[in-house]
Each structure stands twice: as C-alpha cells, then as structure tokens.
Amino acid sequence: MAEEKKLFKVKIDNISVEVEPGTTILNAARGIGGDVVPPAMCYYSKLQGSGGKCRTCLVKVTKGSEADPRPMPKLVASCRTTVMDGMEVANITSPEVLEARKGIVEFLLINHPLDCPVCDQAGECDLQDLSYEHGAEGTRYEFKRRTFDKIDLGDHIQLHMTRCILCYRCVFTADQLTASREHGVLDRGDHSQISTYIQNNLDNDFIGNVIDVCPVGALTDKTARFKNRVWFLKPVDAHRNCDNPKCCGKVALWMRGDEVFRVTARKDQYGEVENWICDTCRFEKKDVKDWTIEGPRKIDRHSVISQGHYVNTVKPKDPLVEVLDGRQPKLLFDIHTQSEVNRPTIDLSKIDGPAHSDDFNKSQS
Amino acid sequence: MQTLTNRAKPVDRRPMTFMEKMYIPAIAKGMGITLKHLFQRKATVSFPEKKRQFSPVFRGLHVLNRDEEGRERCTACGLCAVACPAEAITMEAAERKPGEEHLYREEKYAARYEINMLRCIFCGFCEEACPKDAVYMSETFAPAMYERKGFIYGKQDLLIPNPKTSSGK
C-alpha cells in the first residue's frame, strides 16, 4: 500500500510549514529560514545526539498539537523537541522567549572571558554573534571567573578551557568521526572541563574537525594561532585530491596574498561544516600549490569577514602608463625599505606554531 | 531662477558713470580698507616661534600606551586597522613567551605595529576602536620632513616611555 507519508503542519511565528513526523522544531524552523530560526550553540545537525545543552534555542509552544491544544507549560529546547501535528510555536514573536534567551546568554557568558581581542575565533564566533544579537549589555556577575591553564591537544590543537561553554560538540565529533575518542568531559558542575586523560595527545585523523565545530575559541588551530585576524584574510573555496578516502578535500582557504594562513572546512549559513576534512588537508597543506582554487567564498555581507570587499571588485586600469607614453612611473618610495611589517623575508604562514619574539628578532639580523 | 538664499545679488551691467570711470575714489576706498587692517589684530601667529594652544579633543600623533606596570597594552586585535579608513595601520602579532610577562599585558601582543603617517587622516577611529585603551592620539602633530621615509612610525616611535624604567624602550 503506497500510502503517502503524513506530513505534520506546524506554525512557527505564524508561518506555516509542513514537515515529516519526528522533525525537531529547530529543523522545521530551518526549513522556513530567515529570522525565525532559533540560534543554537550546542546543536549540530551533522552530529548525532548533539543538542539540549546550551538552551539558547528555547521557544514557546503556544499550542501543543491539534489533538491536545494546550500550550506547553515551560519554554522548550527546540533542538530536542519534535513537532506535533498542528503545533504552534512562537520564537521571535514571543517576548518571553527573547527575555529567556537574554538570560541564557548571560549564563553562557558568566565564565566566558572577555578576551575577544586576543581570541582567534573573534569575527567568526557563534557566541560573539549570539551575545551581540540577543545578549544584555553588561553582566551582573561579580565573582571571579573560572580559569584553566591552556592545554596542547597534540601538535596542532590548542585547548583554551577558560573559553569553553561545554557544548559537547567536540566530544561527539571525536566519537563519531575518529577512530577512538581520547577526550571528554571531566568533573562536574562548575568544575567540569573538556580534557584528555593525563594529557593524552589527540592525533587521530579527522580530529581537526573539533576546531570547526567549536562554537567559541576554546579549540583553536595552533598552526594559525595569532597569525592574523579572520577579517584580514580572504576565504576562498579550494579543493585537492586527498588520498584519504573519507576526506572530500573540499575546503575553505583563508589567504592573504599568496599565503595560506588557515585551512578550514566549508561552513554553511548556520555555521555547520558541510564536509569533514582530514588532518593532512587542514594542518599540512599550507601552500597555494597544493590546492585548486575555485573562487572566493560567499560571505554574508554583514559579517566582519566581508569588510575587505573582495568579491566582484574591479581593479581599474592604471591610466598613468598611458599618459606617460608607456613609461612606468618612477617609484619614489619602496615601503619595505622602511616598514617592518609584512617583510618579504619572513613568511608568517610557514611558521609552525604562533610567532614569538625570536621569530621576529631573527629576521632582523 | 529661484535663488537658494536671499543674499544673492544680481549682476549690475549698466555702463559705468564718469565718477566710476575715474577709478580714483574706488582705489582710495580699497587702500582705506588695507590701511584699516594694518592696525587690526592679526589673525595669524608666526608659527614655529609661537604656538597656538590645542583644544583638549585635538587629534594628533598616536601613542601606544602602557599600563601601570609598564607593560604594553596593545594585544594586536586588529580593530584599529579594520576601523582605519585610510588603511594606515598594519601590525603583526606574536605570542608572549614565558618570561615576557613583564613586557606584555596579554598573551598575544603586537610584535610589529606601524602607522603610516602619510596615509593617516587623523580621524581618531583607531582610538575609538581600541578595546584595550592602547592607542591614544596626542596633542602634537607629525613634523614636516623633506622625504617620505621618516613617516612610517614603528613601535619604537609610538610607545610611551616605560614608567618603571623610563628608559624609553
């Protein structure tokens, strides 16, 4: 009997959408798109079992279902609640939800250090966007923030536990992508931390993806650490034929001139990775020659990353050569004779880890 | 044509009268204005010897600030560079090593920090953008020079003297 699958009719912020049974409210809202999509810090559609931790996706269910039209008594986490037929959900139309979200952001920021000027994630940080859009101006927290020492997880990943919001995404990533998981959440409550048991190194292939899934700057790429800010880099789509059968080789390169500062997976509009990439692609291929560049990556024009306006730029023709009858204008001043920045002799992107004082002083001699 | 202000004066194209053709009264009138200004207060000052006082909000040459312990405040976040409409500011960041805590305030610092004073338009956006109170604009301006090469101000030109050692470096 080829009976058509019954679709559930849901109304989110007075916009109707029909989804399959078993879909979560968050995914139904993503089907609509736009402003009605609740923000999510811990839910990750590519990771099974993620979600339900951060509570930023709280929504109000004003009508439970067609059969039972009572509203749900409390706000529910939309990433974990499945839809019912005839359900009506209020997200941005409910002041209660917006108020609750503001509180959640304040909770998330209680222990999060305000070191965005230092953090490499700034500019592409989910928590930064979330607190900008939904957060309050100040915090009411008066006590000392919890701090941890920095940990090196292997050669390429730096764990900055102080910034962690315990979304568990990296734990799921290691569980589901890599051969074996060697890190997890230790301790409880305020003391809980992402860590490896006795500083075990993370060197499974595909472990680099924990950097991409991290919504904050807790897990960062050590090969790109402090090298440049994301808004000075130009993201371009590129690919290479990776030997690893599980790796697609499709990445986003973060370039400046001909230097490849960082390799990440391509992220969609919800900040989720489209295709996982292997560690060889991510950490070891920092040369333009390794890659086939497809073109500039489309970046939301409101993002700070697009401040360079590199898409669709037309370089105007230099009229000077024509006016001077083909002679090149005399260069009066070569910037490199005076400037110490961007010296041709020192390639920041080729240094393994973050640059140190001796990296700069060595070049002077 | 409708005038934009009521101060517009139509051009007088009538032929000149005999008195106007003599020019003498007009010249005398003009010389009178010149003579009057000789005895008035001068609007200019003779610059290098005499200097005008700057207003407290004057935006002059930049300085890089230190904190109370003499550590550099700048953490090379790049916000001044991204705010700069003239793209005059460039920097390169480095990580603080253990043992350098007395030099730099944060774990990241600007190993190189340069302001191209030829490009700078002294708008003060960098000062406003700085989250660490590191860039300030002082009440002096860039000295005139015959060549371009002295106008790239590096960290040694911008940093204020260390209050602890006050050696200047």
From TrEMBL, chain A:
CC terms in the record's Gene Ontology section: membrane
Top-level taxon: Bacteria
Listed Basic and acidic residues bias regions: 349-365
Chief location: membrane
Residue span of region Disordered: 344-365
SUPFAM superfamilies in alphabetical order: 2Fe-2S ferredoxin-like, 4Fe-4S ferredoxins
Residue ranges of coiled coil: none
A GO term for molecular function: 2 iron, 2 sulfur cluster binding
Cofactor(s), by name: [2Fe-2S] cluster; [4Fe-4S] cluster
The 4Fe-4S His(Cys)3-ligated-type domain, residue ranges: 96-135
Domain 2Fe-2S ferredoxin-type: from-to ranges: 8-95
Keywords: 2Fe-2S, 4Fe-4S, Iron, Iron-sulfur, Membrane, Metal-binding, NAD, Translocase
Subcellular location: Membrane
Keyword Iron found: yes
Family: Belongs to the complex I 75 kDa subunit family.
Protein name: NADH dehydrogenase subunit G
Protein's organism: Chitinophaga jiangningensis
Native organism taxonomy: Bacteria, Pseudomonadati, Bacteroidota, Chitinophagia, Chitinophagales
From TrEMBL, chain B:
Domain of life: Bacteria
Magnesium in keyword set: no
GO biological process: aerobic respiration
Cofactor(s) listed in the protein's UniProt record: [4Fe-4S] cluster
Residues that coordinate or bind [4Fe-4S] cluster 2: C84, C120, C123, C126
Catalysed reactions, semicolon-separated: a quinone + NADH + 5 H(+)(in) = a quinol + NAD(+) + 4 H(+)(out)
GO CC, any one term: plasma membrane
Coiled-coil zones: none
Xref: InterPro entries: 4Fe4S_Fe-S-bd, 4Fe4S_Fe_S_CS, NADH_quinone_OxRdtase_chainI
Subcellular location: Cell membrane
Record EC number: 7.1.1.-
One Pfam family it belongs to: Fer4_7
Keywords assigned: 4Fe-4S, Cell membrane, Iron, Iron-sulfur, Membrane, Metal-binding, NAD, Quinone, Repeat, Translocase, Ubiquinone
Membrane topology: Peripheral membrane protein
Primary site of residence: membrane
Cofactor note: Binds 2 [4Fe-4S] clusters per subunit.
Any GO molecular function: NADH dehydrogenase (quinone) (non-electrogenic) activity
Residues annotated as binding [4Fe-4S] cluster 1: C74, C77, C80, C130
Domain 4Fe-4S ferredoxin-type: 65-94, 111-140
Keyword Zinc: no
Family statement drawn from the similarity comment of this UniProt entry: Belongs to the complex I 23 kDa subunit family.
Record text on subunit structure and interactions: NDH-1 is composed of 14 different subunits. Subunits NuoA, H, J, K, L, M, N constitute the membrane sector of the complex.
Function: NDH-1 shuttles electrons from NADH, via FMN and iron-sulfur (Fe-S) centers, to quinones in the respiratory chain. The immediate electron acceptor for the enzyme in this species is believed to be ubiquinone. Couples the redox reaction to proton translocation (for every two electrons transferred, four hydrogen ions are translocated across the cytoplasmic membrane), and thus conserves the redox energy in a proton gradient.
Entry-linked PANTHER family: NADH DEHYDROGENASE [UBIQUINONE] IRON-SULFUR PROTEIN 8, MITOCHONDRIAL, NADH DEHYDROGENASE UBIQUINONE IRON-SULFUR PROTEIN 8, MITOCHONDRIAL
Name assigned to this protein: NADH-quinone oxidoreductase subunit I
Organism: Chitinophaga jiangningensis
Record gene name: nuoI
